Amino acid sequence: MTKRICACLAALMVLALASCGHEDPKNLISKDEKENRVVNLFSPMEKTDPDAENVARTASDLTVAMAEEALGVTMVYRTYTAEDYQDKTYDDVCLDRARNNMDDLYLLNPDAVLALGAEGKLMDLSGLDSVKNLREIILTANTVDGKLVAIPQEVVAYGLFVNVDLFRQYNLSLPETPEDFLECCRVFQENGIETPVGANRWWLEAFVFAQAYASLYNGGNTQAEIDALNRGEARYSDYLRPGFEFLQTLMDHGYIDAEKALVSEAIESERPDFLAGKTPIVMAYWGAANTETAYGATDFEMQVIGFPSSLGQMPVIPITGLAVGADAEHREDAARVIDIMVSDEALKLYSKTNRVISPSKNVKVDCVPALKPLNDRIEEGVYVLGSNAGMNVEQWGNTCLIVRQLLGGATVDECMAAFDELQDAALSKS
């Protein structure tokens, strides 16, 4: 189960940040540790030239250069590749390396943040100067046992990518609630669009989270509810059931092709029909609207909105982050590097280069017009976390895998029993 969860989340990282190739000397800063103070960084990204086409890597490199210049250190890039590690996922490798103090600085997915934070393997970053500028969402998502153990350089938001022209053609408003969404799908299907929602095996959990946790993160006593879940006084399955029932309804009506989604990779499967105007709705992360290899160049008006929920359009946000090994050889320098990389100065450069949501409340993104509806909701403080290191059951990866069970024919009750097992296992360890 753990390995499969890591595989789910590794895919998220690869898609959001882009995985990379071998440790090519031309892509690496010098590794001469005898003459330089070094900080070893393990991530899916190799060192690139400032004019590299991959803007995610370029943006990161620019902030690394700021830290190197300010601190007089050299960043040594240690890069994950599937070829190098064969059967091990990125998250498997991160866990192994952090537990064995092999690096100083890590770019971690949510499940690794939770696992390593709970084990005491990550340094507490709450004392960094830059922390005071962070959005509350960052503190909530990456705090384990009262310690802030990871800080991202961007907030990765997921939403629905919709063909506005098709909605107008059939006199439909963009959906706010599950009921609205079902009605839109009904109208599309009655007008010859057999499968209105393009889906894949990675991201359907975002529908679930919007249903499950809209109230928890928007108006409820968030920490009290999470504490109750962690003590076993409330059940994750009770929160998640409405989302799974909603997905089952979409499948029962043929609005989502469950059989196809179960074997489809993200974007690859649904992109052709969406771009051709055959599918009105797909789901993806923020960055997909910025790149022509995904949805950055459509022949129709596209908007990115939140997932339907009882509280309206709901962005879903899983949080990755930079983290320092608690016992790393160069942990003090590594912490200083993070402090500079997530400073307002660095994040302004990062956000300008990559056009992403910043973890700093002081840095606003100049997003493409299609992303404005999603960005507006987040700026209003309306969102659901798809990952939260303060929950004792990892959310994104587990839900991804159990959604696949639903796609494969499991009942909603069977899926809820799987969550109960995960919660009981977590309680037995506490």
Give a written overview of the molecule:
By secondary structure, the protein is an alpha/beta fold. The chain folds into two domains: 2-155 and 318-371, Periplasmic binding protein-like II (D-Maltodextrin-Binding Protein, domain 2), CATH 3.40.190.10; 158-314 and 393-429, 3-Layer(aba) Sandwich (D-Maltodextrin-Binding Protein, domain 2), CATH 3.40.190. It is 45% helix and 10% strand. It is built from 18 helices and eleven strands. The protein has helices at 2-17, 55-71, 82-85, 90-99, 110-118, 136-141, 164-169, 178-190, 205-217, 222-231, 236-252, 258-263, 271-275, 331-341, 344-354, 372-379, 396-407, 412-429, and strands at residues 37-43, 73-79, 105-108, 143-144, 147-148, 158-163, 281-285, 302-305, 316-317, 321-324, 384-385. The strands form four sheets. Strands 2-1-3-10 form a four-stranded mixed β-sheet, with helices on both faces. Strands 7-6-8 form a three-stranded antiparallel β-sheet. It has a two-stranded antiparallel ribbon with strand order 4-5. The chain is globular and about 65 Å long.
